[in-house]
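A student in our group prepared the protein record below, which I am reviewing. This is what I was given:
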Amino acid sequence: MDLGLNGKRALVLASSRGLGLGIAEALVAEGAHVLLTGRDATRLEEAAARLTEGGPGRADFAVADLAAPDAVAQLQAAATDKLGGVDILVNNTGGPPPGPITETSSEAWVSSFSTMVERVIGITNALLPAMRAQGWGRVLTLTSSGVEQPIPNLGMSNTLRAALLGWSKTTASEVAGDGVTCNVLLPGRIHTARVDDLDAAAAKRQGKSAEEVAAASRASIPTGRYGKVEEFASVAAFLVSEKASYVTGAKVRCDGGMIRSI
């Protein structure tokens, strides 16, 4: 299926590794011009070179820290310089550290909210006017399975990512008439370094090995395994494609059936 992404310009946040990089790779494979972003210049440069070599699209990169006060301005300027504009925005951020929600400090809440929520809303609002003016745009926001089934010891993530659901749904209704879609994609246990870190933290709390924790986690998923990054990225590519032009305001799961709610 031709997703109609050839020549589209995509800004993918936090894309030096993990889910962000996987989505960037899927978009380049569909012919898009993708701007990778993150804090590690070496990792970004290597990834951009590899994706461009694989084609048929291409990748550039820009070093940007979502925690910086001027992150939105930096990202918008980089997108203008490298891409000439943005047709597709993939909102992705790192997650906060695990820990009991009742022991989270006010400072930690403010810091994580700024990076995980405020910056996402800010860059989206900065790019939406041009998308609306051209009559085509895609905004895809990655959250977590925790917004539907709260994950133990990840209270900050459950809370802050849930805030993005209401924001995305509201925004979708305001821009749909201008040809712009806004959707949220929920990953389950997609095998990334972040999942390995969380399994290791759980193992330490429970006095078990990381493999014991991972095995129990896999057993709780109907498919019996962790998802692959490329599987998740394929769903993302569809949601930002021409083919998904009538999908907006949606919350889509890619979780192997892990989330138990209907």
